[in-house]
Each structure stands twice: as C-alpha cells, then as structure tokens.
Amino acid sequence: MGCVFGREVSSGIVSESKEVSNFSVESSSRKVGNVSVKTIDGDVVEVQNDESRKKEEKVVDGEKKPRGERKRSKSNPRLSNLPKHLRGEQVAAGWPPWLTAVCGEALNGWIPRRADSFEKIDKIGQGTYSNVYKAKDMLTGKIVALKKVRFDNLEPESVKFMAREILILRRLDHPNVIKLEGLVTSRMSCSLYLVFHYMEHDLAGLVASPEVKFTEPQVKCYMHQLLSGLEHCHNNGVLHRDIKGSNLLIDDDGVLKIADFGLASFFDPNHKHPMTSRVVTLWYRPPELLLGATDYGVGVDLWSAGCILAELLAGKPIMPGRTEVEQLHKIYKLCGSPSEEYWKKSKLPNATLFKPREPYKRCIQETFKDFPPSSLPLIETLLAIDPAERLTATVALNSEFFKTEPYACEPSSLPKYPPTKEMDAKRRDDEARRLRAASRAQGDSARKTRPRDRGVRAMPAPEANAELQSNIDRRRLITHANAKSKSEKFPPPHQDGAVGFPLGSSHHIDPTFIPPDVPFSTTSFSYTSKEPIQTWSGPLADSDSVGATRRKKYAMRDSREPSKRPAVKDKSSNTRK
Ligand SMILES: Nc1ncnc2c1ncn2[C@@H]1O[C@H](COP(=O)(O)OP(=O)(O)OP(=O)(O)O)[C@@H](O)[C@H]1O
Questions:
Q1: 27: which of 90, 212, 483, 546 lies 20 to 30 Å off by Cα?
Q2: What does UniProt give as GO cellular component (predicted)?
Q3: Domain boundaries of the chain, sorted by first residue
C-alpha cells in the first residue's frame, strides 16, 4: 500500500511545457470509506487514506495547512510553488499528483519517461537509499545511470527529501555537477528513477585501486573540477553536505562531476535557518558539525574538499575515524584543537563535552612534509578549524596551488582507467574473500592468500555513525509500506542486532568512551611520496576478523540507512534541514 501509480502517457522528454497541455485527460476523485481514490482516464493515480493525506498536506503544501496553522508564506526556495493550473497540466501529462505537489517546478518542461523505454544492463551502485543501474536508453541508444530512489509517498518527510534532491539537481547546471536528465515513474512500484549521464568511475574507486597513483597535475585537475563544481553549487545557494570520493564521479574523458545531492540543502547566508549537524560522511565531516553546529555554511563542503585534496596526494584517506569521538580527536591531532576565541564565539552545543584539557598543536606542515609545497597553504586553509577561515571555493580556485608549476593537466589527458567504482573495489574484496575461503577449505592458511590489505574497504561514515533508535524504527515503517518490492526490503528488526555499532547515541557522545589516547596513538600516519600506497582505510585485522567485519558491514548496509538523512528521522533534535 501507499504506492502511487503515475500514468505514463509518453516516452521521451519534451523541452516545451506547452506540449504537456495537449493531452486531454479526464480526472475524477471518489471516496471509499476514509480512502480517497483519484483516477485519470480511468487509471488509479492516487490512493490515500485521510490520515496520511492530512499529514502530507500539512507538511508539503503550505496552502493546505489546517486552519490555525495556515500562514501566508513567502516563496520558499526549499519547496516547489507551482500554480495549481500548471500542476493540473503536469498531472495530465502523466506525473503523479504527489510529485507535482512537492516538486512541480522541477518537472516543468518534462513528461515522465516510461520504465520500459530503458533496458537495464547491470547494477552499478548501491547507496543508502537507492540502487543505481547502468541502462540503455532505447530511444537515444545512450548509456545512462538510473538511480532508483526508495521512498514512501505516504511519508511526507520521505517525499520531501526525495523532492528536494530533484529540485536541487534541476537548479544546477555546470559541467562539474551531475545533470539530471529525466525522471521515470512506474506503475509497478513505489520507486522513482532519476536518469543521469553514465559515469564510468568514482574518485574513491580510483584512489583505492592498486594500479592508480596520481601525479601532481592530475591531482590539480581533479581538485580544480571539484572546486569549480562546488563554486557553482554555493553560488546557487546549495550546500552539498556529503562531499566524499564515492560521490565524485568521473567519466572516460576525465570529467569530474559532483553527484548524490541526497543530503544537499538550499541555504541563504542572509536568511539563516538552523540545519541538522548530522550530515557529511564521518571521515569528511568538519569539526563544527561534530561539535553540533546548526548554523553553518559553505565551510562544511570546503573542509571535505580539503580532506579529498590531502587524500589524493597521500593515496589514502587522511582521517579515517570509526566514531564521532575518534573523528574529532583525529582532527585535533592534525589540525589542532579550537582556539579559546573560537570556543567563545562559536557557542557550539557539544563544546563542553569535547574541549580537551590540554590544547592540541596544529601539525599539518610536518605531517604532510612530502606533499608539493604549493599544496600546503591550500590544505591549511581548507582544513582550518574555524569555518570562517576556510573562505570560499572561488578563493581556493585562485590559490597558488593552481598557479604553480606543474599545472593541472587537461581532463582529456588523464589516463583511461578500467572501471573503478567503489562498487568494483567491493567486488574485488568479495572475490578475495571467496578465494581465501576456498583455500581455507583446502587446509591452507588463509593468511597466505590474503590480498593487499588495501582492499579492506573503509567503513563509510553512515555505518560508523551512532544511530538513533527512532531512525531505525522509521526505516522499518517505510519497509513495511514498501513491502511490495521485495529486493528493496530493509532487514527485519531482529537483524538490526547485527549492526554492531552503538545505537541511540548520536547527540549524546559519551565522553567516557574516549580512552586516554589509545585510539589516537595508533592512527597517526606520515606520508612520503616514495612510499607505496599501503593499507588505506578501515581498521586492520586478521583475515578472520576481516571476514567478520565485512559480514557485519553488509548486515549493516540497510540498518545504517537512517543516518544518511538524519534530520528526517531525528525527531529528538530541533533542527531543520
Ligand atoms: N551517473 C552515474 N553514473 C555511474 N554511476 C553512478 C551514477 N550515479 C551514481 N552512481 C553509482 O551509484 C552509487 C550510489 O549513488 P548515489 O551516491 O547517488 O546514491 P546514494 O543512495 O545517495 O548513495 P550513498 O549512500 O553512497 O551516498 C555511487 O557511489 C556511484 O558508484
């Protein structure tokens, strides 16, 4: 239940909204008990019970708020504000009404693509709330990526966040930002597919690949593209809030595109709204978010960009923390602890919990002494503890790093890599694990066939994050609502026990958890350009425990989902996204 069946009136995206109105369609609404059924030309397009409809109206549509809560609101860039008659035209064109209600503006000029006008080739990615497929567009012959987004159309928040991603993607238009090329709605499932240009690689996969070692011009080339994409997002009032290697996609022409706007948010530096601090994958999360900031800006993305720059030069992630507490200590150890002035001015919610007794000294120059000298001032700026000192993407693009020889290479001159997605690295791990198991079965020591430790993948932050039980519960609700699509199910509640990470502690980080310095003395690293890339992420463990870790990780894949969208589920916090 809870599915909305979008009527597929045509295939192909049209560029003129006029064409949309050419469809003549009869629509009607009727009530069966407390359930409303809407039909268009005899097809059921929406089934909702009164309760859920009220909830949805209250949240997603300012005009329909119940009496007493109604306010004449100004145009809110976070929501779609399409006039009713245009919405009607969109419904007539085959868009599900709930979708036009939440992101009608983003649908303008488009009509829905039919699922059967694409041929699925392979599953190429699995995200927190999506599966991504390589597919062929049967109309154009183009290879595309189809991102199947999971959501429940009766859950206003779930719809709202899905809509936000679409609205944001439609507002951005830059060579270094992934372009949303169309939407597919299907009668058969509750899912919606987002159509993107197909990208062969992602930066995390390239960094993890044993064959790849970037030169300075290549690092500059990727960083220039990343910062250009970020500059565009920020200038258009969008914070990405999840910059990390696996969200930086690269095509065979070396073009980098920022992808996955699932956590992105509109922001207006002149009209600030509190936002959730539970964003950005742990290793790339800036200190202010770990300290609970809800008033932040472009600095969060710039911090992540600084982590990426250092990672590209080091060949491994620079601060792979396993918990929020450990992450913060890694930051203090490398970047120094916040100054007294910063503690005073920032008034961060978790400041009292995390103010070290003795200040930590900043040691970026010593730690990265073998990096190209022109990279150090930029790393220093991007990894400034005070977000105000990180400046902007535009300033970073004008830094000495890009003006000093050797210059950035052209994207087209970058090597042509074999497919190297994070997913490919996972496949490599699985294959290595299979080989180990086979050799163990033959009585061989598993350690003899152990592949490079480098294959042991990082635990992405959402997995390492502490989760709120309410988030998990909410996911379960969505699961039940979506029970139709079997393969998309989340694990039943009893399997959540396999997660292995503490639940219910996201805003309550137990300071007693900090062992005096044990985790931190083992995580220091030094970089020399001559060193081969070594084990680059995740805790080292013997082969057996590696197997256990991976089993845990896969068991966690679904249960970690809530942390990806903390504000959606984190009812205990007063934050808005
Ligand atoms: N346009 C694309 N071309 C090729 N692969 C893609 C494309 N978009 C996404 N992918 C692959 O699918 C994966 C998941 O996509 P995406 O990050 O957008 O989803 P998500 O559910 O938000 O994931 P996550 O939880 O990892 O952030 C990506 O890491 C990437 O490997």
A1: 483
A2: cyclin-dependent protein kinase holoenzyme complex; nucleus
A3: 85-197, 201-413
